[in-house]
Amino acid sequence: MRHPLTGGGMTVALSDIVVLHNLLRPLQDLNDAAALCKYLESFYTLRKPVASTINTLAGALYKVFCASPDPARKEMRQACFDYLSLGGVFSNGPIALLSGLNPRPLSLVLHFFAVAIYGVGRLMLPFPSPKRIWTGARLISGASGIIFPIIKAEGVRQMFFPATVPAYYRAPPVH
């Protein structure tokens, strides 16, 4: 289940279909439960980059856009809109993540913190004040508090290093 803000559930489902199709293609007999189970173990590992990137993005956006009286959270919301309105890589990158065209979790983390740093930059202009510096520090802290627990729940190793998971290298069963 993904949050309706991103509509990522269907994107992940369609990606899963492609992964499963390619994974099961060499399997001769779908009634061979043992062989099918081995392939399905690999499926959960192979689907992780796309699924976890979209899940993390959905969870992070939900927390950012959730109603909150916190000035740092309000600044993060505004920074999201302003970052996207810059165009170019600042809009193409997040849209590619949202659409599943860029399944790289590191790209998600980079754009998420780029938005937070952009928000801090907005606070510091034209002149930084102690209140603005404090809000900026809370914005970075809040951004970390949003994304890192979501990444931890998704599985850091599976998300960022799927090739280190043994099922990733599983070969088709020999008949």
Automatic annotation (TrEMBL):
<comment type="similarity">
    <text>Belongs to the squalene monooxygenase family.</text>
</comment>
<dbReference type="GO" id="GO:0050660">
    <property type="term" value="F:flavin adenine dinucleotide binding"/>
</dbReference>
<keyword id="KW-0472">Membrane</keyword>
<dbReference type="Pfam" id="PF08491">
    <property type="entry name" value="SE"/>
</dbReference>
<dbReference type="GO" id="GO:0005783">
    <property type="term" value="C:endoplasmic reticulum"/>
</dbReference>
<feature type="domain" description="Squalene epoxidase">
    <location>
        <begin position="1"/>
        <end position="134"/>
    </location>
</feature>
<dbReference type="InterPro" id="IPR040125">
    <property type="entry name" value="Squalene_monox"/>
</dbReference>
<comment type="pathway">
    <text>Terpene metabolism; lanosterol biosynthesis; lanosterol from farnesyl diphosphate: step 2/3.</text>
</comment>
<keyword id="KW-0274">FAD</keyword>
<keyword id="KW-0560">Oxidoreductase</keyword>
<dbReference type="GO" id="GO:0004506">
    <property type="term" value="F:squalene monooxygenase activity"/>
</dbReference>
<dbReference type="InterPro" id="IPR036188">
    <property type="entry name" value="FAD/NAD-bd_sf"/>
</dbReference>
<comment type="function">
    <text>Catalyzes the stereospecific oxidation of squalene to (S)-2,3-epoxysqualene, and is considered to be a rate-limiting enzyme in steroid biosynthesis.</text>
</comment>
<protein>
    <recommendedName>
        <fullName>Squalene monooxygenase</fullName>
        <ecNumber>1.14.14.17</ecNumber>
    </recommendedName>
</protein>
<dbReference type="InterPro" id="IPR013698">
    <property type="entry name" value="Squalene_epoxidase"/>
</dbReference>
<keyword id="KW-0285">Flavoprotein</keyword>
<dbReference type="GO" id="GO:0016126">
    <property type="term" value="P:sterol biosynthetic process"/>
</dbReference>
<dbReference type="GO" id="GO:0016020">
    <property type="term" value="C:membrane"/>
</dbReference>
